[in-house]
Amino acid sequence: MHEKRVRWIWMLLIVIAGGAGIWAYYHGKSKDGNEQVTYLKVSRGPIEEIIEATGYVAPLNRVEIKPSVSGRIESLGVDEGDAVKAGQVLAEMSSTDRVAILDAARAQGPAVYKKWEDTYLPIPIISPLNGRIILRNVVVGQMVDPTTVIYALSDKLIVYAQVDETDIGRIKDGMSAQITLDAYPNRVVQAKVFDILREGVDNNNVITYNVKIDPAGGAPAFFRSQMTANIDFILQKKTDALLVPAVAVSQKNGESRVFVPGPDGKPAPQKVVIGIEGASNDEIVSGLNEGDTIIVRQERYVPQQAASSPLAGGAKKKGS
Question: What element of type H or E holds 112?
Answer without folding.
Answer: helix 110-119
